[in-house]
Specification:
By secondary structure, this protein is of the alpha+beta class. It is built from five helices and 22 strands. The chain has helices spanning about 5-30, 145-170, 180-195, 215-220, 405-410; strands at about 45-50, 55-60, 65-75, 80-90, 95-100, 105-115, 120-125, 130-140, 235-240, 250-260, 280-285, 290, 295-300, 300-305, 310-320, 325-335, 370-375, 390-395, 415-420, 440-450, 455-465, 465-475. The strands form six sheets. Strands 1-2-3-6 form a four-stranded antiparallel β-sheet, with no helix packed on it. The radius of gyration is 31 Å and the shape is elongated.
């Protein structure tokens, strides 16, 4: 029977059916392979204190380069009208530029630039007096190796399928169709293995986060992963702050020099941390607080301007994140000479009672125990600021006189920057920006005071593009002391 014409006709038909079944299996199993690649990322928000303007620069996420780069510049209450020139540059060469006209009204001002290739870029800001440079990364569309294996395997299986059908139906020796059938089975095995291993395959170190970004490692991070046991962490940085001509009542430029703790070289690998490159907190001798965001003008060179209202010693703290080095808090002081400014009255320690839920003195606070402080701002129309619903600055314990808050704060054991997180909204990817005003009125903070004593606290939130700062004082009793 095997040598009969009927048997010869049946053999290729059986092989063809086997090939068709394998093809159907490959189609069904291909649903397990999902494209991954390098995500185009989310919006990048960077706060900038450029001259006398407090800005938030939002770089909208991009899909692929070349293409348009959409930028929104958010101004706040009190921002002066004028023009702002934006430049997109790479390798020191300006590729595109545009001008944003600021009308003096708070809100978002849209602009569009163009970028032509993936890799590290810089966004330049220039208001005619002050300049800033924001590093950012244009992502590349990258296919991971496992994805190449998966789709390559299915393509190869399809080719072997067609070849096997042709051999089975056209060639007199249908047994030869088993050769492409075996190739198809091997290709399917490769594809299915790649799809199954995709979930457990670790991604390469992210350029710009764990590694310094370059054109090569952004375009193909898998080829330049350099997977090894090398620790990517870096030493802490040293901070030097100077403003030799700072006088009370006059606009002062403060220069921050950021240097590597090991080599002393300028540091140029700061990450955008909580929507800023550097968070600079300045406290005056009488307890006034500034939350500023110095602009980058060069490697390790950051500058910021503000008007100190009084002479004396100002406490300064800079919070930053270095690539591979984690978050660091650096503290120093800034001396301000007497000038045209009039003597300032101390900020009332209980000024926050009108918005803080309950009397601050009556808050049950125990050292070493989490304490929740809830600020209430009237209506549910608060805007996110620096990616958060609210900020709480804690300094203490302070043991000096009420009129010497700045000098005593500089030596305080504890400096803390606490956040109130934005509630999660279903269907909203990423963090909302300042154009969304739908939060509050309650802004809760949870913090553990580690030691008894007197603490100065400042609560910050944003409404109508105005950052509200509310000072208060909290007394943490010693353990066992009467409340």
């Amino acid at each position: 029977m095997g040598n009969s014409p009927r048997g010869r006709r049946t053999a290729p038909m059986v092989i063809a059916r086997v090939l068709v079944l394998c093809a159907l299996a490959s189609v069904l199993l291909s649903g397990t392979a999902q494209a991954d690649g390098v995500s185009s990322g989310a919006d990048v928000q960077v706060a900038q204190t450029l001259g006398t303007r407090d800005l938030t620069v939002i770089l909208r996420r991009m899909d692929i380069a070349p293409g348009p780069l959409h930028v929104d510049v958010v101004t706040h209450t009190g921002s002066a009208p004028g023009t702002l020139k934006l430049r997109a540059s790479t390798a020191g060469t300006t590729f595109s530029e545009t001008t944003v006209r600021l009308d003096g009204k708070p809100g978002a001002h849209a602009a569009r630039l163009r970028v032509d290739q993936p890799g590290p870029w810089e966004l330049g800001l220039d208001d005619g007096t002050d300049t800033a440079s924001i590093p950012f990364i244009v992502p590349a569309r990258v296919i991971p190796p496992w994805e190449k294996a998966t789709f390559g395997g299915f393509v190869a299986a399809g080719v072997f399928l067609v070849l096997g059908l042709v051999v089975a139906l056209r060639v007199r020796r249908p047994q030869l169709a088993l050769i492409p059938a075996g190739g198809m089975v091997a290709a399917l095995a490769v594809a299915i293995t790649g799809a199954m291993l995709s979930a457990s395959t670790p991604p390469p170190p992210a350029p710009g986060a764990a590694l310094d970004p370059t054109i090569d490692n952004i375009q193909d991070p898998y080829a330049n992963a350099q997977m090894s046991t090398v620790d990517f962490s870096r030493p802490p940085v040293n901070l030097a702050v100077r403003s030799p001509n700072a006088r009370a009542g006059a606009l002062a430029e403060v220069r921050l020099a950021i240097a590597d703790g090991a080599t002393g070289r300028p540091v140029d690998d700061l990450l955008v941390h909580d929507n800023a490159l550097i968070h600079l907190v300045v406290i005056s001798p009488t307890g006034r607080l500034w939350h500023l965001h110095p602009v980058r003008v060069g490697p390790g060179d950051y500058r910021v301007k503000f008007t100190p209202p009084e002479a004396g010693t100002y406490a300064v703290a800079a919070e930053l994140a270095r690539r591979g080095g984690g978050v660091q808090l650096l503290r120093t002081t800034l001396g301000v000479a007497a000038g045209t400014g009039s003597p300032a009255e101390p900020v009332p320690a209980g000024a926050g009672k009108r918005v803080i839920q309950g009397n601050p003195v009556d808050i049950e606070v125990k050292p070493g125990t989490p304490t929740t402080i809830t600020a209430r701002f009237g209506k549910a129309d608060l805007q996110p600021w620096l990616g958060m619903l609210g900020h709480l600055i804690v300094v203490g314990p302070i043991t000096g006189k009420e009129s010497l808050v700045g000098a005593d704060a500089a030596a305080a054991p504890t400096w803390a920057h606490v956040h109130s997180m934005i509630p999660q909204s279903p269907g909203m990817p990423g963090k909302p920006d300042e154009t969304v005003a739908a939060y509050g009125p309650d802004v809760p903070f949870t913090y553990t005071f580690s030691a008894p004593g007197k603490y100065r606290v400042w609560v910050q939130a944003e409404r109508d593009y105005t950052v509200l700062t509310v000072p208060m004082q909290i007394e943490v009793p010693a353990e066992g002391a009467p409340q």
